[in-house]
Amino acid sequence: MRITRDFSHYVRTAGEGVQHIDLAVDGVHCAGCMARIERGLSAIPDVTLARVNLTDRRVALEWKQGTLDPSRLIDRLEELGYKAYPYETESAEATEVAESRFLLRCLGVAAFATMNVMMLSIPVWSGNVSDMLPEQRDFFHWLSALIALPAAAYAGQPFFRSAWRALSHKTTNMDVPISIGVCLALGMSVVETIHHAEHAYFDAAIMLLTFLLVGRFLDQNMRRRTRAVAGNLAALKAETAAKFVGPDEISQVPAAAIHPGDIVLLRPGERCAVDGTVIEGRSEIDQSLITGETLYVTAEQGTPVYAGSMNISGTLRVRVSAASEATLLAEITRLLDNALQARSRYMRLADRASRLYAPVVHATALFTILGWIIAGAGWHDAIVTGVAVLIITCPCALGLAIPTVQTVASGAMFKSGVLLNSGDAIERLAEADHVIFDKTGTLTLPDLEVTNAADIPADMFDLAGRLALSSHHPVAAAVAQAAVAKSPIVGAIEEAGQGVRATVDGVEIRLGRPSFCGADALVGDGAGLDPEASSVAFCKGAEKFILSVRQGLRPDAQAVIAALKARNIGVEILSGDREPAVRAAAYSLGVPEWRAGVTPADKIARIEELKRRGAKVLMVGDGMNDAPSLAAAHVSMSPISAAHLSQATADLIFLGRPLAPVVAAIDSARKALRLMLQNLWLAIAYNVLAVPIAISGVVTPLIAAAAMSGSSILVMLNSLRGRSASREIA
Amino acid sequence: MEILVILVPLALALGGAGLVAFLWSLRSGQYDDFDGAAWRAIADDEPPQEAPAKP
What b/e string do you get for A95-106 counting C-beta neighbours within 10 Å, with b at 16 or more? Predict the structure, then answer.
């Protein structure tokens, strides 16, 4: 059978006779890597562009059409020491990038206008107390209007649009008072300028937009960065499938290029990238990523297989019913839809704040106008004072209070290996007081490990590891990894469904099923062996050993559970796996509350029950069967090894083998929430001080500008406190 | 104060030039890679000839 690698799905034409591919590259960390990759790739003839993006960890490559095979470029990167995978921009990421650019453009325009209006305002402020002629002042005001009005119309778009969306849905958000404040300030300033008045507020309005756009841009940039990392991780998983392109010819193509009706080959040790039905072959498959059940299932003709299943022993031909994960278990889809609807009801802290804030501020402005009229002031003066109240209370600090903290906190989480999927996850995570763990793949590692390596003589274990390199079986892979084997034994023969054998120095060695090695007797009396583990035997001549292989707990799982308890957070395990397996895990971790054999619906029922008792549940799970409960919980986390669906549903994703990011994320989130609340209080305190001045009618544009920038800088500085090192676990 | 006739348009023109330069740099993708750009500025120029790799 001939196997080819096909990357044509990712190659696109970029102009006249030039082809382009984007690669996600693993391990690019510094400027040195950047220079090495760019030089190494540019040295290939016909490569016209090789440019590394260090922020997104990607390489853009272009070459003359028809001269190169993209796989050659990937091989070259491999020689340089970097693993590269073709990368396809998801539509979600493309939107974030476009949005990010738009905000930066708005920020540029607003900052330009602020600087120039300020340049005109300062002479007016100083002229008002010295000897400026009224004509000169008017001229400067008109110039300010000329700059500020178009700039505000352009740079204010993100706020105006969002405010309009909220109003047309009959709700309100932070952007409603912002938009009203800006529009009124600008409108009043124009009227005042026409009437040759002393004060105009063009500078305050445009400065407000600039500060708020800084907050927006930071927020957006954080999301864009997370998306880029998530996109790379998806590419690094390199989900490919061996597709039949002829009766006896297969091509290794990306999962995205597989269509329903295609036939793919699933070899032992491979993870299935598509949903489909077995049409030929017989094997055991591991569906733990889908159901949580760690016991292998037999697959034969007609058995449905889902993306994420691991093929264990035999080779299967699968007819694709849906590429990637377009179809799912119907039950899970239904539960997921319900749960997602429930979750969208959560109201962000910022929106809650603005819901209180907007009516208070608008009422204050209105009462100010009425109060001045009753006190005998003219309509004009009363309205000017009322608008001044709106300008001074415009939620500049309030608008920055939350995004700046979010940016800093997500940076801290990023460092400890946690990615944020949704912006408000930080607030919800900070409130969590009960954690539900899934067992398989969450508390345990997704891959297998040898538990009794210490019982076996080192030289034997080493030999077993080298022999294991010749097998595709996942258990063999675990043995090879545990023994840190590098050089395979020459002439090893794999017997399907049995094991591997080879002859070394005239002695036969075997690794495989106990019966294959004649070691059945050892399994029978192996009282010390773990009942949950699968046994694999190794024999060299007459010497026989049993290796016990199982999914091990994450190395720091125990410390993490203890750390959670120390923080007064309830811990429980809900698993779809069998009872003995769950009991063993719960016992060794010291978790008294656990349930086994739980269905997705049961998990949701348990979460609902806890919710009714007032608990805020953090669900940590990875399987496809966890997706509905991830959505139903107050906040959710998934490891990066999780099924696609779970990753898409979870609010946060953690990387790597340790479980510690769970605690680190909770700590960062709590700290961030504290800072957010502090910032909100700072903003309120500022308003409490400034509003009486505004109501009394003595606010000049100078006071407004100083108060606004002062409070914004104060809030930003407070947010930066979130950067300091977070506590260690335990 | 006649100098204002020259100074005000001059200041605005300079500000405008800054804005145009910013929009141009944004359009040409100079803000796509903050981390990389920081290093490129201090990276050495490409050596005239690649030294042969030694084992």
Answer: ebbebbbebbbb
Q: Closest Cα of chain B to A564: distance in Å? A: 36
Contact at CB, A112 and B19, closer than 8 angstroms: yes
Instruction: Give Cα A605 to chain centroid, integer Å.
Output: 27
ipTM, interface predicted TM-score of the complex? 0.80
Phi and psi dihedrals of A28, rounded to 5?
Answer: -85, 115
Question: Is A438 a catalytic site residue?
Answer: yes
Mutation to test the A interface, candidates B12, B20, B28, B49, most A Cβ within 10 Å: B12
- Residues of chain A with Cβ-Cβ distance to B39 below 8 Å are 30-31, 34, 54
From the list A22, A275, A438, A626, the catalytic residue is A438
**Residues of chain B contacting A101 with CB distance shorter than 8 Å:** 26, 31
Q: Range with the lowest mean pLDDT among A223-227, A404-408, B21-25?
A: A223-227
Percent of chain A with pLDDT over 70: 92
Alpha-carbon distances, residue A666 vs A402, A427, A555, A670 (angstroms): 17, 10, 19, 6
pLDDT confidence of residue A328? 54
Residues A398 and A658 sit within 8 Å (Cβ to Cβ): no
Of B4, B34, B39, the CB nearest to A31: B39
Of B8, B34, B36, the CB nearest to A52: B36
Nearest to A43 among B32, B44, B50 (CB): B50
Segments of chain B scoring below 50 in pLDDT: 49-55
| Nearest neighbour of B46 by CB, restricted to A31, A39, A116 | A39
Across the A:B interface, residue pairs with CB atoms under 8 Å apart total 57
Residue type (1 letter), A398: L
> What mean pLDDT do residues A677-682 have?
88
As a dihedral over the C-alpha atoms of residue B32, residue B35, residue B41, residue B43, rounded to 10 degrees, the angle is -120
Of the ranges A239-243, A499-503, A633-637, the best mean pLDDT one: A633-637
Q: What is the overall mean pLDDT for chain A?
A: 82
pLDDT confidence of residue B51: 45
CA-to-CA dists, residue A40 to A43, A52, A693, B49, angstroms: 5, 12, 65, 13
pTM: 0.77
Q: How many angstroms separate the CA atoms of A533 and A527, rounded?
A: 12
Q: What's the sign of the alpha-carbon dihedral A64, A70, A76, A81?
A: positive
Whether the CA torsion A605, A611, A613, A617 is positive or negative: it is positive
For A727, phi and psi rounded to 5 degrees?
Answer: -65, 150
| Torsion angle of the four alpha carbons A605, A608, A610, A615, in this order, in degrees rounded to the nearest 10 | 150
Rounded to a whole number of angstroms, the CA Rg of chain A reads 32
Q: What string of DSSP letters covers A377-399?
A: --HHHHHHHHHHHHHHHSSHHHH
Q: What is the mean pLDDT of chain B?
A: 78
**C-alpha neighbours within 13 Å on the C-beta side of residue A361:** 27
Confidence (pLDDT) at A307: 78
Which residue from A396, A385, A381, A390 is spatially nearest to A360, judged by alpha carbons? A390
Cross-strand pairs, A242: A252, A265
Residue-wise pLDDT for A554-612, tens only, equals 888 889 999 999 999 999 999 888 888 888 888 888 888 898 888 888 888 899 999 89
Cβ <8 Å between A55 and B12: no
Please say whether the beta carbons of A289 and A308 come within 8 A.
yes
Q: Please identify which residue in the block is written with the tokens 């345990």.
A: A444
- Chain B residues whose CB is inside 8 A of the A39 CB are 46, 50
Compute the half-sphere exposure of residue B43: CA atoms within 13 Å on the CB side of its CA: 18
**Amino acid found at A97:** V
- A507-536 core/surface letters (b: 16 or more CB in 10 A; e: else): eebbbbbbebbebeebeeebeebeebbbbb
Which of chain A's residues have a Cβ under 8 Å away from the Cβ of B11?
Answer: 116, 119
Answer whether B43 sits within 8 Å of A35, measured CB to CB: yes
